[in-house]
Fold each of these.
Amino acid sequence: MDCVPEIKVLRERCVRCGDCIVLCPQSGDRVSYPVFISTGDTGEIKVENQESCFGCMTCVEFCRASAVIVSGAPSPTGQQEVFSARRVIRII
Ligand code: SF4
Ligand code: SF4
Protein backbone atom coordinates (compact mmCIF):
# COMPACT_ATOMS: atom_id res chain seq x y z
CA MET A 1 0.00 0.00 0.00
CA ASP A 2 1.34 3.38 -1.00
CA CYS A 3 -0.30 5.23 1.87
CA VAL A 4 -1.21 4.47 5.44
CA PRO A 5 -4.82 5.27 6.30
CA GLU A 6 -5.44 7.53 9.25
CA ILE A 7 -7.91 6.01 11.66
CA LYS A 8 -9.52 7.84 14.53
CA VAL A 9 -11.92 6.73 17.23
CA LEU A 10 -13.95 9.61 18.61
CA ARG A 11 -13.72 9.10 22.34
CA GLU A 12 -16.78 11.17 23.07
CA ARG A 13 -18.92 8.89 20.89
CA CYS A 14 -17.39 5.49 21.52
CA VAL A 15 -19.42 3.27 23.84
CA ARG A 16 -16.60 0.73 24.12
CA CYS A 17 -18.64 -2.16 22.78
CA GLY A 18 -15.59 -3.75 21.15
CA ASP A 19 -17.32 -4.44 17.83
CA CYS A 20 -14.52 -2.78 15.89
CA ILE A 21 -12.04 -5.24 17.34
CA VAL A 22 -14.27 -8.20 16.54
CA LEU A 23 -15.27 -7.10 13.05
CA CYS A 24 -12.06 -5.57 11.72
CA PRO A 25 -10.24 -8.29 9.76
CA GLN A 26 -6.99 -6.72 10.88
CA SER A 27 -7.69 -6.67 14.62
CA GLY A 28 -8.10 -9.14 17.43
CA ASP A 29 -5.96 -12.04 18.55
CA ARG A 30 -5.75 -13.52 15.07
CA VAL A 31 -3.39 -10.85 13.74
CA SER A 32 0.07 -9.84 14.87
CA TYR A 33 -0.35 -6.11 14.40
CA PRO A 34 -3.95 -5.22 15.17
CA VAL A 35 -5.43 -1.87 14.27
CA PHE A 36 -7.87 -1.65 17.18
CA ILE A 37 -6.85 -2.51 20.72
CA SER A 38 -8.89 -2.43 23.91
CA THR A 39 -6.91 -0.80 26.66
CA GLY A 40 -6.81 -1.82 30.28
CA ASP A 41 -9.81 -2.11 32.54
CA THR A 42 -11.68 0.75 30.93
CA GLY A 43 -12.02 -0.91 27.54
CA GLU A 44 -11.13 2.30 25.81
CA ILE A 45 -10.34 1.69 22.16
CA LYS A 46 -6.89 2.65 21.01
CA VAL A 47 -5.73 2.74 17.39
CA GLU A 48 -2.37 1.17 16.68
CA ASN A 49 -0.71 -0.33 13.62
CA GLN A 50 -2.64 1.77 11.14
CA GLU A 51 -0.40 0.34 8.45
CA SER A 52 -2.27 -2.97 8.88
CA CYS A 53 -5.49 -1.40 7.61
CA PHE A 54 -6.45 -2.16 4.02
CA GLY A 55 -9.44 0.13 3.86
CA CYS A 56 -12.39 -2.27 3.91
CA MET A 57 -14.46 0.26 5.91
CA THR A 58 -16.14 -2.39 8.03
CA CYS A 59 -15.31 -0.41 11.15
CA VAL A 60 -16.97 2.71 9.77
CA GLU A 61 -20.01 0.84 8.52
CA PHE A 62 -20.78 -1.10 11.65
CA CYS A 63 -19.71 1.08 14.53
CA ARG A 64 -22.97 1.54 16.43
CA ALA A 65 -21.91 4.96 17.66
CA SER A 66 -20.53 6.33 14.39
CA ALA A 67 -17.29 6.83 16.25
CA VAL A 68 -14.77 5.67 13.67
CA ILE A 69 -13.22 7.85 10.99
CA VAL A 70 -10.92 6.43 8.33
CA SER A 71 -9.18 8.74 5.92
CA GLY A 72 -6.58 8.21 3.27
CA ALA A 73 -7.54 4.62 2.60
CA PRO A 74 -7.33 3.33 -0.96
CA SER A 75 -10.64 3.22 -2.82
CA PRO A 76 -11.69 0.87 -5.64
CA THR A 77 -10.81 3.65 -8.07
CA GLY A 78 -7.31 3.93 -6.70
CA GLN A 79 -7.93 7.39 -5.29
CA GLN A 80 -7.74 8.33 -1.67
CA GLU A 81 -11.05 9.10 -0.09
CA VAL A 82 -12.27 10.22 3.29
CA PHE A 83 -14.86 8.07 4.99
CA SER A 84 -16.29 10.02 7.87
CA ALA A 85 -18.20 8.46 10.67
CA ARG A 86 -21.71 7.97 9.39
CA ARG A 87 -24.88 6.40 10.58
CA VAL A 88 -25.98 3.19 8.88
CA ILE A 89 -28.55 0.51 9.54
CA ARG A 90 -27.03 -2.14 11.72
CA ILE A 91 -27.63 -5.59 10.19
CA ILE A 92 -25.75 -7.81 12.59
S1 SF4 B 1 -17.41 -0.28 17.41
FE1 SF4 B 1 -17.51 1.96 17.71
S2 SF4 B 1 -18.55 2.22 19.67
FE2 SF4 B 1 -17.86 0.09 19.58
S3 SF4 B 1 -15.83 0.11 20.58
FE3 SF4 B 1 -15.47 0.36 18.39
S4 SF4 B 1 -15.40 2.60 18.06
FE4 SF4 B 1 -16.34 2.25 20.06
S1 SF4 C 1 -11.03 -0.13 7.35
FE1 SF4 C 1 -11.19 -2.37 7.60
S2 SF4 C 1 -9.07 -3.06 7.92
FE2 SF4 C 1 -9.11 -0.84 8.24
S3 SF4 C 1 -9.41 -0.57 10.45
FE3 SF4 C 1 -11.46 -0.49 9.52
S4 SF4 C 1 -12.24 -2.62 9.58
FE4 SF4 C 1 -10.00 -2.67 9.95
Amino acid sequence: MSTAQGRGTHAKAILGPELYAKLADTHVLLVGAGGIGCELLKNIVLTGFGKITLLDLDTIDLSNLNRQFLFRKKDVKQSKALVAAQTASAFNPNVKILPIHDNIKEPQYDIPWFQQFDLVLNALDNLDARRHVNRMCMAGNVPLVESGTAGYLGQVQPLLKDKTECFDCIPKPTPKTFPVCTIRSTPSQPIHCIVWSKTYLMGQLFGEDEDATGELDAAEKEGENAQEIAALRKEATAFKIVRDALRSKNSEDAAGIGLPEGGIVSASVSYEILIFFVPGIRR
Ligand SMILES: [Zn+2]
Protein backbone atom coordinates (compact mmCIF):
# COMPACT_ATOMS: atom_id res chain seq x y z
CA MET A 1 0.00 0.00 0.00
CA SER A 2 1.39 3.44 -0.85
CA THR A 3 1.81 6.10 1.83
CA ALA A 4 -1.06 8.15 0.43
CA GLN A 5 -3.50 5.22 0.63
CA GLY A 6 -2.20 3.94 3.93
CA ARG A 7 -2.04 7.27 5.68
CA GLY A 8 -5.43 7.18 7.41
CA THR A 9 -5.83 3.42 7.76
CA HIS A 10 -5.05 3.10 11.43
CA ALA A 11 -6.85 6.25 12.54
CA LYS A 12 -9.90 5.15 10.53
CA ALA A 13 -9.85 1.72 12.18
CA ILE A 14 -9.68 3.26 15.65
CA LEU A 15 -12.14 6.13 15.21
CA GLY A 16 -14.53 4.57 12.71
CA PRO A 17 -15.13 6.04 9.25
CA GLU A 18 -17.72 8.60 10.39
CA LEU A 19 -15.60 10.24 13.08
CA TYR A 20 -12.47 9.95 10.96
CA ALA A 21 -14.19 11.86 8.14
CA LYS A 22 -14.74 14.81 10.49
CA LEU A 23 -11.04 15.25 11.29
CA ALA A 24 -10.16 17.14 8.10
CA ASP A 25 -12.64 19.90 8.99
CA THR A 26 -12.05 19.97 12.73
CA HIS A 27 -10.30 23.15 13.78
CA VAL A 28 -7.94 22.54 16.70
CA LEU A 29 -6.13 25.08 18.84
CA LEU A 30 -2.91 23.76 20.34
CA VAL A 31 -1.52 26.04 23.04
CA GLY A 32 2.17 25.37 23.59
CA ALA A 33 4.89 23.99 21.32
CA GLY A 34 7.31 22.75 23.97
CA GLY A 35 7.89 19.29 25.42
CA ILE A 36 4.24 18.21 25.34
CA GLY A 37 3.32 20.40 22.36
CA CYS A 38 5.89 18.87 19.97
CA GLU A 39 4.69 15.35 20.75
CA LEU A 40 1.02 16.32 20.54
CA LEU A 41 1.42 18.25 17.29
CA LYS A 42 3.11 15.27 15.65
CA ASN A 43 0.28 13.00 16.84
CA ILE A 44 -2.62 15.15 15.68
CA VAL A 45 -0.97 15.87 12.33
CA LEU A 46 -0.43 12.14 11.73
CA THR A 47 -3.95 11.29 12.94
CA GLY A 48 -5.38 13.49 10.21
CA PHE A 49 -6.58 16.71 11.82
CA GLY A 50 -6.73 19.18 8.97
CA LYS A 51 -6.77 22.65 10.55
CA ILE A 52 -4.46 23.42 13.42
CA THR A 53 -3.68 26.76 15.04
CA LEU A 54 -0.50 26.54 17.07
CA LEU A 55 0.30 29.25 19.59
CA ASP A 56 3.44 29.67 21.71
CA LEU A 57 5.20 32.77 23.03
CA ASP A 58 8.58 31.08 23.48
CA THR A 59 11.72 30.89 21.37
CA ILE A 60 13.84 27.76 21.02
CA ASP A 61 16.65 27.29 23.52
CA LEU A 62 19.62 24.96 23.12
CA SER A 63 18.49 23.07 26.23
CA ASN A 64 15.15 22.18 24.55
CA LEU A 65 16.68 20.05 21.84
CA ASN A 66 16.99 16.80 23.80
CA ARG A 67 13.20 16.37 23.91
CA GLN A 68 11.52 18.94 21.67
CA PHE A 69 12.24 16.93 18.57
CA LEU A 70 10.68 19.27 16.01
CA PHE A 71 13.62 21.63 16.54
CA ARG A 72 17.23 21.47 15.40
CA LYS A 73 20.37 23.33 16.38
CA LYS A 74 19.94 25.77 13.51
CA ASP A 75 16.52 26.77 14.95
CA VAL A 76 17.83 28.05 18.28
CA LYS A 77 16.42 31.54 19.09
CA GLN A 78 13.63 31.11 16.50
CA SER A 79 9.91 31.07 17.38
CA LYS A 80 8.77 27.65 18.65
CA ALA A 81 5.35 27.99 17.02
CA LEU A 82 6.78 28.89 13.60
CA VAL A 83 9.46 26.19 13.50
CA ALA A 84 7.20 23.46 14.91
CA ALA A 85 4.52 24.30 12.35
CA GLN A 86 7.05 24.18 9.53
CA THR A 87 8.56 20.87 10.63
CA ALA A 88 5.25 19.11 11.32
CA SER A 89 3.57 20.33 8.11
CA ALA A 90 5.87 17.96 6.22
CA PHE A 91 4.39 14.95 8.07
CA ASN A 92 1.05 15.18 6.27
CA PRO A 93 0.28 17.01 3.01
CA ASN A 94 -3.36 17.49 4.03
CA VAL A 95 -2.73 19.60 7.12
CA LYS A 96 -2.80 23.37 7.43
CA ILE A 97 -1.00 24.71 10.49
CA LEU A 98 -1.28 28.36 11.41
CA PRO A 99 1.52 29.33 13.81
CA ILE A 100 1.14 32.29 16.17
CA HIS A 101 4.12 33.56 18.14
CA ASP A 102 2.31 35.22 21.01
CA ASN A 103 0.98 35.02 24.56
CA ILE A 104 -2.40 33.29 24.89
CA LYS A 105 -3.32 35.80 27.62
CA GLU A 106 -3.30 38.76 25.21
CA PRO A 107 -6.76 40.42 25.10
CA GLN A 108 -7.29 39.78 21.37
CA TYR A 109 -7.64 36.08 22.19
CA ASP A 110 -11.08 36.67 23.63
CA ILE A 111 -14.05 34.33 24.03
CA PRO A 112 -15.30 34.64 20.40
CA TRP A 113 -11.74 33.90 19.22
CA PHE A 114 -11.73 30.68 21.29
CA GLN A 115 -15.18 29.77 19.95
CA GLN A 116 -13.88 29.44 16.38
CA PHE A 117 -12.19 26.19 17.49
CA ASP A 118 -13.88 22.81 17.82
CA LEU A 119 -11.29 21.65 20.32
CA VAL A 120 -8.54 23.20 22.42
CA LEU A 121 -5.46 21.27 23.52
CA ASN A 122 -3.38 22.66 26.38
CA ALA A 123 0.32 21.86 26.33
CA LEU A 124 1.54 24.49 28.75
CA ASP A 125 4.23 24.56 31.42
CA ASN A 126 2.72 27.00 33.88
CA LEU A 127 -0.41 26.97 36.04
CA ASP A 128 -1.31 30.57 35.34
CA ALA A 129 -1.71 30.08 31.58
CA ARG A 130 -3.40 26.69 32.05
CA ARG A 131 -5.98 28.24 34.34
CA HIS A 132 -6.50 31.11 31.90
CA VAL A 133 -7.23 28.77 28.97
CA ASN A 134 -9.52 26.74 31.24
CA ARG A 135 -11.54 29.87 32.07
CA MET A 136 -11.80 30.90 28.41
CA CYS A 137 -12.94 27.44 27.34
CA MET A 138 -15.51 27.23 30.14
CA ALA A 139 -16.84 30.70 29.27
CA GLY A 140 -17.00 29.92 25.56
CA ASN A 141 -18.18 26.32 26.00
CA VAL A 142 -15.28 24.90 24.00
CA PRO A 143 -14.00 21.38 24.79
CA LEU A 144 -10.53 21.43 26.33
CA VAL A 145 -8.04 18.63 26.73
CA GLU A 146 -5.69 19.65 29.51
CA SER A 147 -2.26 18.11 29.87
CA GLY A 148 0.71 18.80 32.06
CA THR A 149 3.76 17.33 33.70
CA ALA A 150 5.04 17.21 37.25
CA GLY A 151 8.54 15.77 37.41
CA TYR A 152 8.43 12.43 35.57
CA LEU A 153 4.63 12.18 35.78
CA GLY A 154 2.21 13.31 33.11
CA GLN A 155 -1.49 14.10 33.47
CA VAL A 156 -4.24 14.49 30.93
CA GLN A 157 -7.82 15.52 31.58
CA PRO A 158 -10.76 16.18 29.24
CA LEU A 159 -12.78 19.22 30.32
CA LEU A 160 -16.24 20.07 29.08
CA LYS A 161 -18.51 22.71 30.58
CA ASP A 162 -21.35 21.27 32.67
CA LYS A 163 -20.28 17.72 31.83
CA THR A 164 -17.00 17.37 33.71
CA GLU A 165 -15.25 19.29 36.45
CA CYS A 166 -13.07 22.13 35.24
CA PHE A 167 -9.33 22.56 35.76
CA ASP A 168 -9.93 24.88 38.72
CA CYS A 169 -12.55 22.76 40.53
CA ILE A 170 -9.76 21.06 42.43
CA PRO A 171 -7.24 23.58 43.75
CA LYS A 172 -3.70 22.97 42.57
CA PRO A 173 -0.73 23.35 44.93
CA THR A 174 1.51 26.32 44.15
CA PRO A 175 4.64 24.91 42.50
CA LYS A 176 7.80 25.19 44.58
CA THR A 177 10.12 24.61 41.67
CA PHE A 178 10.21 26.17 38.22
CA PRO A 179 11.55 24.91 34.89
CA VAL A 180 15.14 26.01 34.38
CA CYS A 181 14.26 27.59 31.02
CA THR A 182 11.63 29.80 32.71
CA ILE A 183 14.06 30.89 35.40
CA ARG A 184 16.94 31.52 33.01
CA SER A 185 15.38 32.79 29.81
CA THR A 186 11.77 33.88 30.27
CA PRO A 187 11.16 34.99 33.87
CA SER A 188 7.65 36.48 34.00
CA GLN A 189 7.03 36.84 37.74
CA PRO A 190 9.04 38.37 40.58
CA ILE A 191 9.28 34.90 42.17
CA HIS A 192 11.20 33.62 39.12
CA CYS A 193 13.94 36.19 39.77
CA ILE A 194 14.02 35.37 43.49
CA VAL A 195 14.27 31.62 42.84
CA TRP A 196 16.97 32.27 40.24
CA SER A 197 19.05 34.35 42.64
CA LYS A 198 18.58 31.89 45.52
CA THR A 199 19.39 28.72 43.63
CA TYR A 200 21.87 30.00 41.07
CA LEU A 201 23.24 33.48 41.68
CA MET A 202 23.85 32.85 45.40
CA GLY A 203 26.06 29.86 44.62
CA GLN A 204 27.88 31.72 41.88
CA LEU A 205 28.71 34.67 44.11
CA PHE A 206 29.31 33.09 47.50
CA GLY A 207 29.80 29.38 46.82
CA GLU A 208 32.85 27.39 45.82
CA ASP A 209 34.88 28.62 42.88
CA GLU A 210 33.82 26.78 39.83
CA ASP A 211 35.75 26.92 36.62
CA ALA A 212 33.39 26.43 33.71
CA THR A 213 36.04 27.21 31.08
CA GLY A 214 36.90 23.57 30.43
CA GLU A 215 33.27 22.63 30.04
CA LEU A 216 32.66 25.48 27.60
CA ASP A 217 35.78 24.62 25.57
CA ALA A 218 34.55 21.04 25.25
CA ALA A 219 31.09 22.18 24.21
CA GLU A 220 32.62 24.45 21.59
CA LYS A 221 34.68 21.61 20.15
CA GLU A 222 31.54 19.53 19.84
CA GLY A 223 30.00 22.24 17.70
CA GLU A 224 27.42 23.59 20.16
CA ASN A 225 25.80 26.94 19.36
CA ALA A 226 28.71 29.40 19.26
CA GLN A 227 26.63 32.44 20.18
CA GLU A 228 25.20 30.73 23.25
CA ILE A 229 28.67 29.64 24.36
CA ALA A 230 30.02 33.17 23.86
CA ALA A 231 27.20 34.47 26.08
CA LEU A 232 27.93 31.84 28.77
CA ARG A 233 31.63 32.67 28.63
CA LYS A 234 30.91 36.35 29.06
CA GLU A 235 28.68 35.51 32.02
CA ALA A 236 31.38 33.33 33.61
CA THR A 237 33.95 36.14 33.28
CA ALA A 238 31.55 38.65 34.79
CA PHE A 239 30.79 36.29 37.67
CA LYS A 240 34.48 35.91 38.38
CA ILE A 241 35.01 39.68 38.52
CA VAL A 242 32.12 40.14 40.93
CA ARG A 243 33.21 37.16 43.06
CA ASP A 244 36.74 38.55 43.35
CA ALA A 245 35.34 41.96 44.21
CA LEU A 246 33.11 40.55 46.93
CA ARG A 247 36.02 38.70 48.50
CA SER A 248 38.44 41.59 48.34
CA LYS A 249 39.44 42.78 51.85
CA ASN A 250 39.46 46.38 50.80
CA SER A 251 36.13 47.21 49.27
CA GLU A 252 37.69 50.41 47.88
CA ASP A 253 39.89 48.24 45.65
CA ALA A 254 36.85 46.48 44.42
CA ALA A 255 34.70 49.53 43.80
CA GLY A 256 34.39 50.76 40.29
CA ILE A 257 35.06 47.58 38.40
CA GLY A 258 33.91 47.78 34.81
CA LEU A 259 31.76 44.87 33.72
CA PRO A 260 31.07 44.02 30.10
CA GLU A 261 27.89 45.79 28.94
CA GLY A 262 26.73 46.06 32.55
CA GLY A 263 28.32 49.37 33.47
CA ILE A 264 30.05 49.95 36.78
CA VAL A 265 29.45 47.70 39.77
CA SER A 266 30.40 48.69 43.28
CA ALA A 267 31.28 45.66 45.36
CA SER A 268 29.22 46.88 48.28
CA VAL A 269 26.04 47.40 46.30
CA SER A 270 24.59 43.99 45.63
CA TYR A 271 21.49 45.55 44.09
CA GLU A 272 23.53 46.62 41.08
CA ILE A 273 24.94 43.14 40.80
CA LEU A 274 21.43 41.77 40.71
CA ILE A 275 20.40 44.24 38.02
CA PHE A 276 23.32 43.08 35.93
CA PHE A 277 22.72 39.39 36.32
CA VAL A 278 18.99 38.92 36.64
CA PRO A 279 17.94 37.28 33.39
CA GLY A 280 15.59 39.27 31.24
CA ILE A 281 16.79 42.62 32.51
CA ARG A 282 20.16 42.26 30.84
CA ARG A 283 18.64 41.30 27.51
ZN1 LIG B 1 -14.54 24.35 38.04
